[in-house]
Recover the amino acids of this structure.
């Protein structure tokens, strides 16, 4: 194994034609701060909707209500929720209030995946997670899965609801990376950029949604108002 | 066998091309698909200036990466290792296959009578090394999970395009394939339903799979991060649901830092499918940590050389290591648009394939492929990292011409005669004059130019002769007027 | 048209024009003279070397290319009625001769080579033929060498409108290769012919009465297919078309004047 490693590295180092050295990029200062928040928000919404996602703008107080009325009928009953995240408790309460018989069908991601895998793949219809940030340029949500909200939550259920704070909206992916300043030791184990529901055009270039991941993506944007 | 100008032992490209050309359906598939992708790409760049700006930035990043390649690979290895990703190196495809099999066998407990289940995200690197065949020979069960790859695997074919593997198939063919090969599946041409069928079949497999294998789009050295792009979610599933994830990554995929990612993502997805971003961008920096509830408990990164370090040592071919596998060169290649990927008989088809396949598997195996190019330059124009593909294809022809068997062959003699005829102006004027005077003897059919094209007949007089007369006339009339 | 001192130019006629299409060469010369040039045609010219170069026979290409470098001793422009050969001179000569004693001459020649339509467009600046009310549209095929190698796009359209007054157009998928590609046409004849067929269909679909191109290689393949399939459309070199149009115009002027 290390033999191959050394052989490869030696060949690269002993090359008679070293590639011309290239200066590192100029220090990126991110996007100009000229754009007002409203325009950035509009851009984010337009891009997400163009990618076939449903966008709901709501306040911290009324988002469960607005989401309930926006969800498709029949309302998904089998929900996968975080067992620790505050958003999940709010949503669980709202669900139970609105649809009393859902109580039995709320599944909390409390143990390791091995314990919930079967339900996750076979019976769960929907999940709700937070998103850490939003990127306007491409209509993108940034998720940093954590023990609170594990990786598969935003991926396996056919319907995914992501709740994001308007205050986390940035113009570009570069802006986001500059904000976070990750290093090898601080970078989360997994980061996912999501720009719409799962899709494919592999059959005769015809666009179809829900290839493997969520068929539908609902994005709740929490505004101060 | 048809008249070959090549001296390759194996007949190949030309015969395969003829087969495709005999099928109007196939040609229409390719033409429509390529026109679709070209149009998508064109609309993804605001204007030429937008493209050139992104191209310059992407080329700079990839060139910077090459200029520090061995150091970056070591940094990547160190950072990955610290975060729990186990790094391996493979000089050849065979070595990589062995390595991967050993990793799997060490991780997955043996179950009597039950094969190990491997699920794969789309990866050209694993196609390149023939991983599926190797693992299946060792009793494992490999399933491709990208919808296009799944279809192609079900049809027992290989991908015909690096981004759109099943681009050669019409929905009717896929409908028939599904109804024949998948249990309890009625025939339907409805694309949503076909995708739904694929989703259901693969979902069951994702749940049960022991191992997920993926490629890597960009390996980020400074954070030790693997970046994977996709629209379907199968890539995320393959790398998240099974307990073991193995990523296969060409050594040229490494880039210096996380902040290099945004321009590269942007240029890759725009060039490939005309998207500003793919549905999912998956950044993996660690296996499941102790406090996490899901994700693979082990992640292995296999760094694959397989000819790349040789290309690195080659002044001309080094630039090909900038390739980000977007497929734009294929989408814009008029030859590819006529015959599709299979005719090339290689893992990587189209212009980039014509340059790198002779390096990976040898010029003798893939020499004829270099003839499948009219040097029209379209590929070089759209390459998002500025690889001079037309020049490199010509370069491959030069190398092939230098093979001993080729330089003793028929074509080499034709060019030697040509030099004789065109290097000596007096001799040239004599023979060209003779050709025009014998014009009536010129053949009406001249293979291989005909039969679909009429053969041009030499003129009555050469331009040389007419210009000589013209100059004399001008001279006389000039003298008169003076 | 020509007044005062004439402008000296070299013409490199190309090997294809020399033996197969000398009319295109003569019409090039007539046009240049009509617009005030003194044309010099070095009799020792043969071939730019591109066929061998593109086939991977660099040494052989070099042997023939060397001969051409000695021909253009005066600092005059070298007009080439072919995008393909012009692109070989302009772009490939400097690389081909990079480590050759004649490197400087190669660069000098490369810098002076101008493709015919580009040269004519500058030469005829200010000239305008009144637009014609005619259905006889001209469809122009721009070779890939002119379009991409020289970055010239569809100069032919502007030139046709300016010198003939006739409406000019390009086919659908104008940027697609016609399938000729030099030795590609004989090494992969089926593929080449299939590409030519597609191009011909697109050209015919425009309903144009005339087909012109600045490259005789493309024309050889296009006309070969058109003739074989019994089509009415027949391509000609743009120089021949333009020269005929100019003569017609002059003739009419003579009658009316």
């Amino acid at each position: 194994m290390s033999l191959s490693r050394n052989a490869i590295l030696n060949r690269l180092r002993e090359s008679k034609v070293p590639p011309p050295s290239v200066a590192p990029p100029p220090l990126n200062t991110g996007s100009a701060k000229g754009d007002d928040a409203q325009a950035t928000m509009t851009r984010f919404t337009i891009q997400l909707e163009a990618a076939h996602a449903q966008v709901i703008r709501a306040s911290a107080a009324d988002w469960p209500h607005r989401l309930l009325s926006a969800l498709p009928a029949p309302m998904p009953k089998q929900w996968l929720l975080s067992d620790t995240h505050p958003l999940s408790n709010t949503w669980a309460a709202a669900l139970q209030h609105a649809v009393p018989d859902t109580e039995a069908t709320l599944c909390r991601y409390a143990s390791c995946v091995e314990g919930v895998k079967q339900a996750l793949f076979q019976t769960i219809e929907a999940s709700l997670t937070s998103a850490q940030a939003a990127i306007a340029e491409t209509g993108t949500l940034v998720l940093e899965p954590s023990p609170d909200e594990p990786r598969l939550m935003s991926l396996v259920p056919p319907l995914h609801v992501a709740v994001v704070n308007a205050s986390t909206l940035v113009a570009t992916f570069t802006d986001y990376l500059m904000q976070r300043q990750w290093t090898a030791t601080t970078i989360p184990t997994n980061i996912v950029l999501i720009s719409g529901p799962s899709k494919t055009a592999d059959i005769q270039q015809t666009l179809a949604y829900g290839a493997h991941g969520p068929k539908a993506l609902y994005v709740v944007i929490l505004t101060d108002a | 066998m048809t008249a070959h100008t090549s001296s390759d032992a194996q007949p190949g490209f030309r015969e395969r091309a003829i087969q495709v050309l005999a099928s109007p359906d196939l040609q229409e598939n390719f033409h429509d698909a390529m026109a679709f992708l070209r149009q998508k790409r064109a609309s993804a760049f605001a204007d030429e200036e937008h493209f050139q700006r992104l191209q310059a930035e992407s080329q700079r990043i990839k060139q910077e990466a090459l200029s520090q390649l061995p150091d970056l690979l070591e940094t990547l290895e160190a950072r990955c290792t610290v975060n729990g990703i186990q790094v391996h190196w493979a000089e050849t495809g065979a070595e990589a296959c062995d390595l991967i099999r050993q990793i799997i066998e060490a991780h997955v407990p043996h179950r009597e009578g039950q094969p190990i289940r491997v699920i794969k995200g789309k990866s050209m690197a694993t196609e390149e090394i023939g991983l599926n065949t190797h693992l299946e020979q060792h009793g494992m069960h490999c399933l491709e999970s990208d919808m296009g790859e799944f279809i192609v695997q079900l049809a027992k074919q290989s991908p015909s395009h690096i981004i759109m593997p099943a681009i050669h198939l019409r929905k009717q063919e896929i409908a028939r394939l599904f109804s024949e090969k998948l249990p309890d599946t009625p025939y339907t041409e409805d694309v949503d339903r076909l995708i739904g069928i694929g989703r259901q079949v693969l979902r069951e497999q994702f749940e049960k799979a022991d191992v997920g294998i993926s490629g890597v789009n960009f390996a980020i050295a400074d954070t030790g991060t693997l970046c994977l792009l996709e629209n379907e979610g199968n890539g995320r599933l393959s790398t998240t649901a099974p307990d073991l994830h193995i990523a296969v990554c060409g050594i040229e995929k490494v880039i210096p830092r996380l902040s290099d990612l945004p321009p590269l993502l942007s240029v890759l997805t725009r060039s490939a499918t005309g998207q500003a971003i793919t549905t999912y961008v998956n950044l993996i920096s660690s296996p499941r940590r102790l406090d996490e509830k899901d994700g693979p408990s082990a992640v292995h990164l296999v760094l694959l050389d397989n000819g790349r370090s040789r290309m690195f040592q080659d002044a001309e071919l080094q630039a090909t290591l900038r390739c980000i596998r977007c497929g734009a060169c294929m989408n814009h290649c008029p030859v590819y648009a006529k015959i599709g990927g299979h005719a090339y008989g290689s893992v990587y088809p189209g212009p980039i394939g014509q340059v790198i396949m002779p390096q990976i598997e040898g010029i003798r195996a893939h020499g004829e492929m270099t003839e499948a190019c009219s040097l029209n330059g379209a590929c070089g124009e759209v390459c998002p990292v500025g690889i001079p593909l037309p020049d490199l294809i010509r370069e491959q022809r030069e190398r092939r011409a230098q093979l001993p068997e080729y330089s003793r062959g028929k074509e080499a003699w034709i060019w030697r005669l040509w030099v004789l005829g065109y290097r000596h102006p007096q001799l040239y004027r004599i023979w060209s004059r003779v050709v025009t005077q014998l014009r009536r003897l010129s053949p009406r059919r001249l293979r291989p130019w005909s039969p679909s094209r009429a053969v041009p007949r030499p003129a009555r007089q050469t331009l040389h002769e007419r210009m000589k007369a013209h100059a004399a006339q001008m001279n006389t009339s000039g003298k008169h007027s003076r | 048209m020509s007044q005062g001192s004439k402008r000296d130019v070299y013409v490199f006629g190309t090997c294809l024009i020399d033996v197969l299409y000398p009319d295109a060469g003569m019409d090039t010369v007539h046009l240049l003279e009509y617009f005030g040039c003194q044309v010099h045609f070095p009799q020792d010219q043969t071939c730019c070397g591109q066929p061998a170069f593109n086939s991977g026979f660099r040494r052989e290409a070099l042997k023939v290319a060397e001969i051409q470098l000695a021909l253009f001793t005066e600092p005059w422009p070298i007009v080439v009625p072919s995008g393909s050969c012009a692109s070989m001179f302009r772009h490939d000569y400097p690389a081909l001769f990079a480590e050759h004693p004649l490197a400087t001459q190669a660069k000098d020649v490369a810098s002076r080579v101008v493709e015919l339509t580009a040269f004519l467009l500058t030469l005829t600046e200010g000239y305008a033929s009144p637009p014609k009310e005619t259905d006889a549209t001209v469809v122009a095929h721009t070779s890939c060498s002119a379009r991409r190698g020289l970055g010239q796009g569809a100069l032919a359209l502007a030139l046709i409108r300016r010198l003939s007054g006739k409406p000019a157009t390009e086919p659908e998928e104008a940027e697609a290769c016609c399938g000729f590609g030099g030795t590609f046409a004989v090494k992969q004849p089926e593929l080449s012919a299939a590409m030519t067929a597609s191009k011909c269909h697109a050209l015919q679909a425009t309903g144009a009465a005339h087909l012109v191109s600045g490259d005789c290689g493309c024309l050889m393949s296009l006309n070969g297919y058109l003739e074989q399939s019994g089509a009415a459309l027949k391509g000609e070199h743009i120089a021949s078309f333009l020269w005929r149009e100019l003569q017609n115009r002059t003739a009419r002027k003579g009658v009316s004047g």
Strands of chain B lie at 85-90, 117-120, 141-144, 211-214, 218-220, 225-230, 244-250, 254-255, 280-284, 298-304.
